[in-house]
Specification:
It contains 17 helices and 14 strands. The chain is an alpha/beta fold.
Length: 408
């Protein structure tokens, strides 16, 4: 970390001015201590719930600060932004509230619900290009052709200052915080938070988090060539190229960037849902995922985590829950090889029930050509209390004379 460089484009005064500007128009989200997560991770965890913003993301802060900074002529002409989700909704919502015409360019594959929400806020949506990079090129072209002001998702001093207001609130609520852990996509969020936090508390440590599939800022900070590709559940931070301004701020103020795997992000989403009863998207869970994956870094410290957003597709969330239950052994999938004769299904159900298991799903397959014609495969999905209980259920079935195997 190059502490000799003090980035000038965004200052604490800028962030305080942003806080005054957006006061009352965005939520002052709560910061709560999590006793259970703290016990699990071995540190004192305080959660900043940015998923409780009206559009369920911190992006509102920077978007509004930028919109309020425009001249009367710029507001009249309108703005254009590029985004596949949270930035789009933040710009669209506050532009609509302020009477500013907004055009949002989104990739062609953007989920329908995100397109609908953005339109519902009054924005004109243009679907263009298979990737965000191509959508950004189209947004630049529209800005030039129509005289619109570009609202960049992260590489803009006004955007960065708006996001930095999170740190003002968090440190006011929990001044004893030693470490802040913040997700990184393009870097606007961590740049604003780091600028404010380091100005208020110079000895505080700032850690960034990126999905291992998209380590763009990690590579920039380490001076390494990295590959950014693949399907990540943390699409909100799946940015292939970080900003120039944000890169300089991160290099100066952020101690390190941690990478988290997809499984670790999924576990964090499930933990926050089950323990804190709060819904977060993949990017929003990344900070806790990093702390859980690297307990040696944070042991005994007072840690502030930013839950940056909660916009996750319900079907995806359902899949994450089921996958985590399966990992924990609370969902047991198995195949029972049986003779195809009456009464065996009832015997199996009784055996499972006596062992305390709950049968969620049954499939009876007589068409397997690699087993005798008088045999059948009985596929079962069973709910158990934990992995030990699942093992007890398996043993009960085996003791009853049934041959088990895992589904292919």
């Amino acid at each position: 970390m190059n502490t000799s460089i003090v980035p000038a484009p965004v200052t604490l005064d800028d962030i305080r001015a942003a806080a005054a500007a957006i006061l009352g128009a965005v939520e002052r989200t709560p910061t709560h201590y999590s006793r259970t997560l703290s016990q699990i991770a071995g540190c004192n965890i305080h959660l900043k719930f940015e998923n409780l913003q009206f559009t369920a993301s911190f992006k509102e802060r920077g978007a509004l600060n930028k919109l309020l900074s425009l001249t009367a002529e710029q507001k009249k002409r309108g703005v254009v932004a590029m985004s596949a989700g949270n930035h789009a909704q933040g710009v669209a919502y506050h532009a609509g509230r302020l009477g500013i015409p907004a055009t949002i360019v989104m990739p062609e594959g953007t989920p329908f619900t995100k397109v609908k929400h953005t339109k519902d806020f009054g924005a004109r949506v243009v679907l263009d290009g298979p990737t965000l990079s191509q959508s950004f090129a189209r947004a630049l072209a529209i800005a030039k052709e129509e005289g619109l002001t570009l609202v960049h998702p992260f590489d803009d001093p006004k955007i960065i200052a708006g996001q930095g207001t999170i740190a003002l609130e968090l440190l006011a609520d929990v001044p004893q915080v030693d470490v802040l852990v913040v997700p990184i996509g393009g870097g606007g969020l961590i740049s604003g938070i780091a600028t404010a936090a380091k100005a208020l508390k110079p000895d505080i440590e700032i850690y960034g988090v990126q999905a291992a599939l998209y380590p763009s800022m990690y590579g920039a900070k380490k001076g390494e060539t990295v590959v950014c590709a693949g399907q990540t559940i943390a699409e909100g931070i799946a940015v292939k190229e970080p900003g120039g301004l944000t890169r300089r701020i991160v290099d100066a103020l952020v101690k390190d960037i941690l990478l988290v795997r997809e499984e670790e992000i999924e576990r964090a989403i499930a933990a926050l849902l089950e323990i804190e009863k709060t819904v977060v998207e993949g990017a929003g869970a990344a900070a806790y995922a990093a702390v859980a994956a690297h307990p040696e870094i944070f042991h005994g410290k007072t840690v502030g985590l930013v839950l940056s957003g909660g916009n996750i597709d319900m079907r995806l969330l359902s899949n994450v829950i089921l996958r985590e239950l399966s990992r924990e052994g609370r969902i047991l999938s198995l195949v029972v090889e049986i003779e195809d004769r009456p009464g065996l299904l009832a015997k199996i159900a009784t055996t499972v029930g006596t062992a305390g298991g709950n049968i969620l799903e049954v499939s009876h397959n007589r068409m397997m050509t690699d087993v005798p014609a008088k045999s059948a495969d009985l596929g079962m999905v069973i709910e158990a209390r934990d992995a030990a209980h699942a093992a007890e259920i398996r043993k009960s079935l085996e003791d009853a004379g049934f041959h088990l195997r895992r589904p292919k």
